[in-house]
Amino acid sequence: MAKAKIHELEKVLEDYSGNKILIALAGHPDPDCISSALAHQKILKSKNIESTITHVLEISHQENRALVKLLGIEMIKYDRENLNPSEFAGYSLVDSQKPDQRMQEFLSNVPLVSVVDHHDKTQRLEAKFVDINKGVGAAATVYADYLKSLDLLKEDEEKC
Q1: Using CA atoms, how far apart are residues 56 and 147, in angstroms rounded to an integer?
Q2: Dihedral of CA 27/28/32/33: which sign?
Q3: Separation in Å, CA 138 to CA 76, 133, 135, 155
Q4: I want to staple 141 with a disulfide (CB 3.0 to 4.6 A). Which of 52, 100, 133, 136 is the partner?
């Protein structure tokens, strides 16, 4: 199943090569959505797609702030001043099925490229790619399978 889904995602991403995608995190960023965003960013980079990770709500837990700081994860806290919707060819949601309410207007004219989540489907999704996998405990598990299928873990394993 993971191989079929990753091939479907690759096919969708072909149309975005050379462009930029916004990875929008909903809620207070936690390790599952942060790691899923990083994995999604790695997949996009492998397809010659730039990306920016953004969040609306604060990174509320001390250990989550430490994770971001220690790993040097680049994430932008969303506000209308620091992001321009016209610079993005689309956006992706990880560990969520809809963006934070404050971002919905910002994203209203930006196509939803992909949604990867492990929660029950909450609404009809207009994304070009959807993988709602309730059989796993975290969206990061879905992305781990994607990275393995795409052979994108080798360079990380070599660093260890």
Answers
A1: 27
A2: positive
A3: 23, 9, 9, 23
A4: 136
Q: For the chain, which domains are there?
A: 2-159 (3.90.1640.10)
* pLDDT of 36 over the 70 cut: yes
- The secondary structure element, H or E, covering residue 157 is helix 154-159
Those residues whose C-beta lies under 8 Å from the C-beta of residue 160, and which sit 6 or more positions away, are none
pLDDT > 70? residue 160: no
**High-pLDDT (> 90) share of the chain, %:** 72
pLDDT of 58-94, one tens digit each? Answer: 998 999 899 999 989 999 999 878 899 999 999 999 9
What's the sign of the alpha-carbon dihedral 151, 152, 153, 157? positive
Which of 116, 52, 62 has its CA nearest to residue 90? Answer: 52
CA distances to 30, 64, 68, 101, 103 from 59, rounded to whole Å, are: 7, 7, 9, 17, 17
153: confidence class by pLDDT, cuts 50, 70, 90: confident
